[in-house]
Amino acid sequence: MNRLSAFRGALLPVGLLIVWEIASRAGLFSAVVLPPPSAVAARWVSSLVPALPYDPATQSYTAWLFSGELPHDAVASLSRVIAGFAIGVGLALPVGLLMGTSDKLYSLVNPLLQILRPIPPIAYIPLAIVWFGLGNPPALFLIALGTFFPVLVNTVAGVRQVDSIYVRAARNLGANSWTMFRRVILPAASPFVLAGMRIGIGTAFIVVIVAEMIAVSDGLGYRILEAREYMWSDKIIGGMLTIGILGLVIDGAMSRLNDHLLRWHRGLER
C-alpha cells in the first residue's frame, strides 16, 4: 500500500516534468526564461561534483567530496539554520515556560509580544545590518528571530492549556511545584512545544535564504541571487529545488522526532 501511494504521488511531478521538457524542446518559451528539466539537472549535477580531481596530498577525501559549489552552499545554509534555530529555541523555551506558569508575567509581557509577533523577520533586515554588519551575525539574528516567536507562542499556549484535572490530581497526591512542573505541566505541554519547533525550523529555513541574499557571500540564497545577475535560470531553479529537498528532509526529520518523543501521547509507548 505504501509503494502504491508513493507511485501515485510521483505521477503528477513526473508528468509535469515530461510536459515541461517537451514544451521547452518545442520552443514554446525561451530557454533563458525557463530552461528544460534536463538542462536544470545537468547544471545541478555540475554544481554537485567537485571541480578539481582528488589530491590526497592537499585535502582529505571528505573535504574533497564536499568541495563542490552546491554541497558547500548547502552545508553553509544548514549550519546557519541549525545555529539560529538553537539560539531561538534556547531563548523561547524558558520565556514561554515562565509566561505560561506565571499569570503576572504573562499579563506584563503578552502585550509587547502581540505587537512584535506580526512583524516578519524580513522587516528586520535593515536593522540587523546596522546592528551586526555583514556576515553570519545578522543572518543568525534573523533566523533566531524567525524561530523565536513560533516556539514561544506554542509553548505559552501549551502550558496555559494543561488540563486542570491533571493539576488537581497531582496536588492531591502531594506533588510540590517542581514535581508539578516536571511531571505534569512540561509533558502535557510538549506536543505544543514540538509543534512550535517544527514551525520554527520551517520559518528558519525561509529566513536563511533571504538573509543569505543580503548579508553573506555563500549559501543557497547567495548563489541564487548570483545566478540572477547572470540570467542563469537553470542554476536558479536548481538552487530552488535544492532548498525544497533540504526543507523536505528537515521537516521529515522533525516529524519523526515528534513521533518518537510523543509516543506516550499517542498511546504507543510500551
Please give a quick description of this structure.
This protein is mainly α and 270 residues long.
DSSP strand tally: 0
Strand content: under 5%
Low-confidence stretches: none
Quaternary class: single chain
Tell me which CATH architecture of the largest domain applies here: Orthogonal Bundle
User: Would you tell me which CATH topology of the largest domain applies?
Assistant: MetI-like fold
Structural class: mainly alpha
Fraction of residues in H or I helices:
over 70%
* Main pleated sheet: none
Integer count of domains: 2
Question: Span between N and C termini?
Answer: 26 Å
Radius of gyration: 23 Å
Helices and strands, in N-to-C order? HHHHHHHHHHH
Shape: elongated
- Per CATH, the superfamily of the largest domain is MetI-like
- How many helices? The count is 11
Name of the CATH first level of the largest domain: Mainly Alpha
Mean pLDDT: 83
Pfam family, one: BPD_transp_1
Function: Probably part of an ABC transporter complex. Probably responsible for the translocation of the substrate across the membrane.
Organism: Methylobacterium terricola
Protein name: ABC transporter permease
What do these coordinates show?
This protein has 270 residues and is mainly alpha-helical. It folds into two domains: 1-31; 64-268, MetI-like (MetI-like fold, Orthogonal Bundle). Helices cover 77% and strands 0% of the residues. It contains eleven helices and no strands. The longest helix has 38 residues, at 177-214. The two termini are 26 Å apart.
